[in-house]
Write a structure and sequence with these properties.
This protein is mostly helical and 267 residues long. It contains eleven helices and no strands. Helices cover 79% and strands 0% of the residues.
Length: 267
């Protein structure tokens, strides 16, 4: 079952990577892509369907195998996404670009494996939900404001990080809903950060540095979920020097991607 779970998770990562690359291809070069505009593009919709399929396969894999096997497979989406995106833009990814992506993936795998497993049911109080939305909202606005004065690569990274923070908040709220400790208005609150995250991500993709934006998203999303889990749910945080080393590795890889991934736009 463990081998089957790993294979399913790997296929899910491929679907997720394909969807991200298709959506970036449609958003690239657009000044301010709106959801209404992108929803009229079949390739962007196909990308969304591919992402949903990848997420579904990941859930199936988690039901068949241990988290320590399945989660690292999800990180492979970064290594799949770069060649797919490059092919869509009519080029081949450079060796330096793939090496940088590999460094990011290695750091992310380390972080995933070092996060202690949560024990007991998840409970998120109404005040906790308000705190969650407020902190995520303020952080995302600050990151968006910073992107206004950043270089193109920095802009892509900051916008994607803003999206990752909002997706991390959505994931935390989703966990509370799945565990059954929620009020009816939690259902109304959840789409807010999710939709804002989707819009921020498309703006990151529109800049053109796909490798930087996708890597930043993959880093910010789980780290935000872990931080909210510790802050609001009382979950344990990893300790020691190993998490610091893994975080430094992901940061170094992302900086290397910023220098090696070309600025791509649709023509």
């Amino acid at each position: 079952m463990t081998v089957l779970a790993a294979v399913i998770a790997l296929v899910g990562s491929l679907f997720f990577a394909l969807g991200a690359a298709l959506q970036q291809f449609e958003a690239a070069g657009t000044t301010k892509p709106t959801l209404l505009m992108l929803l009229r593009r079949p390739r962007w919709l196909l990308g969304g369907l591919s992402i949903l399929s990848g997420g579904g396969l990941h859930v199936v894999a988690l039901g068949l195998g241990p988290l320590t096997v399945v989660q690292p497979m999800g990180v492979a989406s970064l290594l799949f996404a770069l060649p797919i995106a490059a092919a869509l833009h009519g080029r081949r990814p450079s060796r330096k670009e793939l090496t940088a992506a590999g460094v990011v993936a290695a750091g992310l795998i380390g972080l995933v494996l070092l996060v202690p497993a949560a024990e007991g049911p998840t409970y998120l109080s109404p005040n906790g939900v308000l705190t969650l939305l407020a902190v995520a909202g303020i952080a995302s606005v600050l990151l968006w404001a910073g992107s206004k004065i950043a270089s193109p690569a920095g802009r892509a990274a900051l916008l994607a990080t803003s999206s990752g923070v909002l997706y991390g908040a959505t994931a935390t709220l989703m966990r509370a809903l799945v565990d059954g400790s929620w009020n009816w208005w939690y259902l109304l609150a959840m789409p807010v950060p999710a939709l804002l995250a989707l819009m921020m991500l498309q703006r990151a993709y529109a800049v053109g540095h796909f490798g930087v934006s996708f890597a930043s998203l993959q880093i910010a999303d789980p780290l935000t979920a872990v931080a909210f889990g510790a802050l609001l749910l009382g979950e344990p945080l990893p300790s020691g020097l190993a998490p610091i080393a893994a975080a430094a590795l992901t940061a170094a890889g992302t900086l290397a991607l910023a220098r090696t991934t070309p600025l791509e736009a649709r023509h």
